[in-house]
Recover the amino acids of this structure.
């Protein structure tokens, strides 16, 4: 494509520049295409929702660690719950609890600390999920109503709210 005095060369013809990604060339002129308008709005909506998801993932990782670490904590919490439910039998301390029975902690203290940490993680996970899903719903509604600036404000608010979890 060459630009000649404000016109663009497309193949063997000159055209005025495309006014937006939502226009298509038809019968010698650019016309607004409703399907392209919808597709562009969907792309912008997707980017806004992805921003919320990225922020949530970042906060979640800072709270509970990597997915592998989270799996480790889930196993430890499961074993600590079973140990506690059984009355903390000293003759059958689970490996995850035993591993945390360091620094002067006895197995009961270790199990209780594991469970407390698991509870804090669950609270954070639930809070982040609630904020993320509610915010994305608000963004979708604002975009459906044609209020893109409002949608962007919902994204900003979601990111702020998640950073306080």
């Amino acid at each position: 494509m060459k630009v000649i005095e404000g016109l663009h060369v497309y193949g063997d013809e000159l055209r005025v520049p495309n006014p937006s990604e939502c226009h298509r060339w038809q019968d010698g002129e650019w016309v607004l295409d409703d399907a392209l308008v919808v597709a562009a709005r969907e792309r912008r909506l997707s980017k806004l929702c992805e921003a919320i998801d990225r922020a949530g993932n970042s906060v979640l990782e800072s709270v509970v660690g990597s997915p592998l670490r989270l799996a480790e904590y889930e196993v430890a919490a499961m074993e600590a719950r079973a140990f506690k439910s059984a009355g903390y039998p000293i003759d059958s301390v689970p490996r995850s609890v035993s591993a945390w029975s360091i620094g002067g902690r006895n197995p009961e203290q270790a199990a209780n600390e594991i469970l407390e940490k698991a509870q804090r993680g669950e609270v954070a996970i639930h809070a982040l999920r609630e904020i993320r899903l509610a915010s994305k719903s608000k963004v979708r509604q604002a975009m459906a109503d044609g209020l893109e600036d409002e949608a962007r404000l919902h994204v900003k608010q979601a990111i702020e709210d998640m950073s306080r979890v």
In short: The chain has a mean pLDDT of 93. Residues 41-163 form one domain. The longest strand covers residues 7-10.
